[in-house]
């Protein structure tokens, strides 16, 4: 395969364009709107620990904010506030909760520019993608605002005795919500909105690397009319210093976690001590399967979305490209040609389509995975290097000829690196795809509709994109199997995670 001439990306992060620097005063005004404290019982307060932590812009390495860092005592105060209003909140009419969520949807939409800029500043994604996340994240507020009014039970008769049977859905009670850094708004709305809709109170712990968006979102929920104590926010330097005391407290009823599988496993073990309801949205290792009859241009377009959205830092990101041997050369050439067109740089700059990694450790991890693939015989078609200078950048990369023993096949890459592997038969594609402990997203490109059902039978994944590289939506039940977790977020199923079912057997009237 001849791919010479595809080696260099355009790089915009050191160019200091006027467009970015012209926005500095606007950035300062925006950052001044973001509360730095902990949200406890409707008030933004300082931490009892007296400690703070810094938030950096990954495109420059500069500190952009200093936040209050919560400890165990703050965490329990936040849980106290949630517990104090749980009963009253559960009794509010569903319509009232629904309308708060609707107002929150409208406010987040009005503040789209602010939310998008905050996410680009603290996490690095290109501004246009951050706008996409605002739309996606806000949709959970609208969707669960609508679902709040439909939290109904069932009515039936016991078939043998004929007595009436009722079921009710009740709020599960105070929840701990823990979110990751990669989608700072959407991962918060995906949990907060169904919890509010169901009538639960909560403590939210956002990620240390990206607390700003969650803080501004919490303020927006207050502005939308959410009563004090329903949503409390405590983030800080040490995640377990916050989560352990809350999870050990008998008043907590549920934990909903989105993050890596190893942390999810620790939290599951911890949750067992208090027999907590759990929802776990964990890591992924998505196969992206291209059959010989696929429309290759559509597959490349889908691959760009599935791999490069969010700089590859998505749990749904295509991790392993499995391509039929008869089209692998053509697909690889077209994909590499599309990748080389990406403009790497500061996500706030015009035209940038690939931002920085979230921190230096992430760049080191990706570099290790690529070096491992190359050492085992992999060939770099494009990219394959760190970008020197300020910020945490790695070139978008395509690798072919690496064996499946390579770490890029086994591990979640979480960056803009696309390894491509061949297969010859449908059965082999399914076997390779399932050869992972993960089971979140999968993608299949083919023009044979019968294959859709056969592949959905064979693939052990909670999500499947058929001729589509981006499938997340508030109306869809999102979640994984195997080590990718349990429970679903979004859709009608998303609210059930925050309810418990009560059955009432009524005295036989006959
Ligand atoms: P992470 O597991 O390191 O952190 C996630 C959250 O857990 C953060 O708030 C962190 O502070 C907290 N945390 C870390 N250690 C903890 C501990 N011992 N106790 C309590 N909380 C702890 O994950 P990350 O790096 O923030 O996010 C990336 C991971 O998240 C990837 O594996 C990705 O696949 C996964 N993810 C999954 C989904 C999904 O829906 N399945 C969505 C987004 C991200």
Give a verbal description of the structure:
- The protein has two domains: 38-47 and 68-283 and 488-496, Aldehyde Dehydrogenase, Chain A, domain 1, CATH 3.40.605; 286-435 and 441-478, Aldehyde Dehydrogenase, Chain A, domain 2.
- The chain is globular and about 70 Å long.
- The chain is an alpha/beta fold and 510 residues long.
- The protein has a seven-stranded mixed sheet with strand order 16-19-20-14-13-21-22, with helices on both faces. The chain has a six-stranded mixed sheet with strand order 10-9-8-11-12-23, with helices on both faces. The chain has a three-stranded antiparallel sheet with strand order 6-7-24, with no helix packed on it.
- Helix 4 (94-110) packs antiparallel against helix 7 (186-198), helix 5 (112-123) crosses helix 6 (127-148) and helix 6 runs parallel beside helix 7.
- The chain starts with 9 loop residues before the first strand and ends in a 5-residue tail after the last strand.
- The model is unreliable at 1-7 and 13-18 (pLDDT under 50).
- Helix 14 links the parallel strand 19 and strand 20 (417-423).
- Residues 178-183, 187, 205, 207-208, 239-240, 243, 258-260, 263, 266-267, 281-284, 315, 412, 440, 480, 485 line the site of nicotinamide-adenine-dinucleotide.
- Nicotinamide-adenine-dinucleotide (NAD) is lined by residues 178-183, 187, 205, 207-208, 239-240, 243, 258-260, 263, 266-267, 281-284, 315, 412, 440, 480, 485.
């Amino acid at each position: 395969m001849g791919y010479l001439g595809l080696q260099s990306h355009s790089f915009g992060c050191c160019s200091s364009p006027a467009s970015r620097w012209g926005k500095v005063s606007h950035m300062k005004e925006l950052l001044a709107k973001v509360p730095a404290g902990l949200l406890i019982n409707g008030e933004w307060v300082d931490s009892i620990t007296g400690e703070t932590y810094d938030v950096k812009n990954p495109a420059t390495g500069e500190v952009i904010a200093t936040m209050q860092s919560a400890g165990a005592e703050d965490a329990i105060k936040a849980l106290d506030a949630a517990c104090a209003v749980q009963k009253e909140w559960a009794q509010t009419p569903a319509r009232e909760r629904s309308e708060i969520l609707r107002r929150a949807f409208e406010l987040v939409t009005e503040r789209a520019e602010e939310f998008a800029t905050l996410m680009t500043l603290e996490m690095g994604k290109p501004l246009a993608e951050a706008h996409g996340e605002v739309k996606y994240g806000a949709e959970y507020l609208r969707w669960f605002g609508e679902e709040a009014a439909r939290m109904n039970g069932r009515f039936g008769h016991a078939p043998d005795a004929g007595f009436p049977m009722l079921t009710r859905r009740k709020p599960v009670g105070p929840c701990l919500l823990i979110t990751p850094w990669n989608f700072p708004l959407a991962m918060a709305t995906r949990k907060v909105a169904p919890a509010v809709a169901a009538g639960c109170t909560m403590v939210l712990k956002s990620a240390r690397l990206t607390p700003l968006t969650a803080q501004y979102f919490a303020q927006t929920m207050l502005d939308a009319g959410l009563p004090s104590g329903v949503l409390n926010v405590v983030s800080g330097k040490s995640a377990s210093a916050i989560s352990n005391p809350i999870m050990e407290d008998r008043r907590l009823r549920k934990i909903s976690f989105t993050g890596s599988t190893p942390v999810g496993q620790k939290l599951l073990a911890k949750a067992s001590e208090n027999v907590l309801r759990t929802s776990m949205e964990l890591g992924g290792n998505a196969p992206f399967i291209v059959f010989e009859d696929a429309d290759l241009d559509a597959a490349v377009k889908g691959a760009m979305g599935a791999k490069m959205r969010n700089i590859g830092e998505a749990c749904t990101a295509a991790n392993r490209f499995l391509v039929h041997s008869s089209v692998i050369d053509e697909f690889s050439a077209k994909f590499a040609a599309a990748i080389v067109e990406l403009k790497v740089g500061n996500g706030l700059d015009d035209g940038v389509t690939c931002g920085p990694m979230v921190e230096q450790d992430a760049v080191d991890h990706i570099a290790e995975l690529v070096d491992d693939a190359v050492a085992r015989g992999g060939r770099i078609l494009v990219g394959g290097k760190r970008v020197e200078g300020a910020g945490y950048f790695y070139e978008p990369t395509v690798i072919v000829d690496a064996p499946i023993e390579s770490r890029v096949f086994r591990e979640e890459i979480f960056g803009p690196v696309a390894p491509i592997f061949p297969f010859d038969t449908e059965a082999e594609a399914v076997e390779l795809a399932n050869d992972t402990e993960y089971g979140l997203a999968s993608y299949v490109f083919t023009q044979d509709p019968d294959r859709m059902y056969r592949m959905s039978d064979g693939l052990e994944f909670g999500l499947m994109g058929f001729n589509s590289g981006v499938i997340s939506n508030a109306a869809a039940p999102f979640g994984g199997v195997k080590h990718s977790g349990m429970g679903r977020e979004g859709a009608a199923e998303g609210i059930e995670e925050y309810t418990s079912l009560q059955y009432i057997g009524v005295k036989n009237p006959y």
